[in-house]
Amino acid sequence: MTRSARRAAMLVVALGGAAVVLKMPWPSLPAHTPAARLGLERWHASDTLGRGESLAALLGRRGLTEIDAAAAIQSLGGLIDDRRIPAGMQVEVHGDSASQRATDVVLRLSPDKVLRLRRQGDQWTATEETIPWVTDTVLVRGVVHSTLYDALDAGGAEYLSKGARTELAWELADIYEYRVDMSRDLQDGDSVRVVFERSTNPANTNRIGRILVAGLERGGREVQAVRFVHADGKAEYFDASGKSLRDSFLRAPLSFRRISSVFGRRFHPVLGIWRSHKGTDYAANAGTPVRAIGDGVVIFAGRKGGYGNCLEIRHRNGYVSRYGHLRGFASGIRDGHAVSQGETVAYVGSTGLATGPHLHFELLVNGVQRDPRYALRQSAGVALTGAERRQFDEIGRVALVALDHASGPLRTAAPSAPAAPVH
After folding, report:
1. Global pTM?
2. To bridge 9 with a disulfide, which of 25, 28, 29, 268 should be the other Cys (CB 3.0-4.6 Å)?
């Protein structure tokens, strides 16, 4: 690693709409490749290929002559069929301001790859290039006032694109899915802080990498999640005491990333869920996969009065989970069939006494319906021991120090050096 790559990276800390930037030693990849080294000229224009539009038509709209456009497309050779370029692909045209002639055409095939068409005289050549991504470490903090989405939107808008903030919310929900039902358990004033890897390319597109450590505070109590890689290469999250966050039961029968797509960032943990006396209703699109909350055996799969299509699964220690109003069952689901935790067992529907598609979920303990929020509170997962525990203690100390940079008061002034716009 070069000396510049070892320099202290900026650790971004964001709270609500305000942010500060701290400096601390943290591994970082080299800075963005300068535009000059990428062969970019003194002017450029960006466009998007329309539905049913040919590449030749777009290039003509961006100033290429018919001869130049034809020669540029011909240079693609076997790299790509210009007749199969998907609509919506971004195309950039770069040129020489003196002659006003195009010198480069860039086809952005994906976030990781581009085709660059370069003119030399009257000849065009095409080369495939891999886009350099720069990885840094970012810390974001947010306070929940409506949803996890909104907290991360407020805390990370300056430093993450909308899609990246959504992905961060999904990743956090996956990490904590054994402890918290993110769609209904969060309350106003709960908070989240997370240290994660962010990758950014020269076009200021960014994406979420590994979440290194996180903290979710509910009701004044925070549960930390520290990433640890076992000797076999499998990564898992543990709390600060070294106990796995995995429990015997998932807290929700629907994945957060599945049900939240119905309302997007407007999904509300209270208004988006209707609670009945004996169960919990989850609003979701018809056909959304329903998960078994734990290992068990199917004891009923069929029609059951107002429940419509209903599935019941017997788990250990007298637990039975019940899923109602289903559109249908997954392949192989029938009485006596063994299921695994997280396995898709059915699909959301509106059968029985239902006015619209949603999942009615119940938990019975020794035949009595119980509130899943309390009944599913399992003891913490298996604890690390021996050499792995010693390794975890070392990693945990570093991770929690990084996480603590999100603690304490932060000044509320706007950032002195705003990040570049993200897309």
Report:
1. 0.69
2. 28
